Amino acid sequence: MTTVVVVRKGGQVAIAGDSLVTFGDTRLAHGYEQNDKLFKVGDSWFGMSGTTAHFPVLRRALNGLTPDELRLGSRDEVFDTFLRLHPKLKDTFFLNTKEEDSDPYESSQFTALIANPAGIFGVYSYREVFEFDRFWGIGTGRAFALGAMYASYDKAKSAKELAEIGVRAGCEFDKNSSGPVRVHMIKLKD
After folding, report:
1. Mean pLDDT, the chain, as a whole number?
2. What is the pTM for the complete model shown?
3. Rounded to an integer, what distance in angstroms lies between the CA atom of residue 45 and that of residue 186?
4. What is the pLDDT, as a whole number, of residue 128?
5. Between helices 142-152 and 159-173, what is the axis angle to 10°?
6. How far apart are CA 171 and CA 167, in angstroms?
7. Maximum distance among all alpha carbons in the chain?
């Protein structure tokens, strides 16, 4: 799957991810394809975990929103954006929203992290949105990343350094994560 993290520290935010794609037991490592799990839309960077089919779909869907529809400056704006996006994912991209019969809402079937000048956010499959104060991670390597970032937070000099530490820990211990690590930095707005 993946290791993707977001970090907020020292007036900056960082988003970082590994570069491995897996298909069951098959690994498509860096060098066979450009496996970048991070992409930019407007002034926001996105990182995702889930099926590789989500990456081109979410990039295209987000880029198809008008500036009034694509608002990601607060937890509520992120929620509203993904609420507007959900019908488009179903109607235009044929998203299968079914997970379990007992699900309370239709699923968007992916998990995403967002880094932008307003902060760091996470979006989960039922459009749950979280705004993180320090850091967070997603994917199969997230537990390793979270532990490493927790242990290093006070010692790390920058958001970039901490994000790299997190993803490197995921790559070291998670069989579904591998380098190189890609990192993007953004200055927080005052």
Report:
1. 92
2. 0.94
3. 9
4. 95
5. 140
6. 6
7. 47
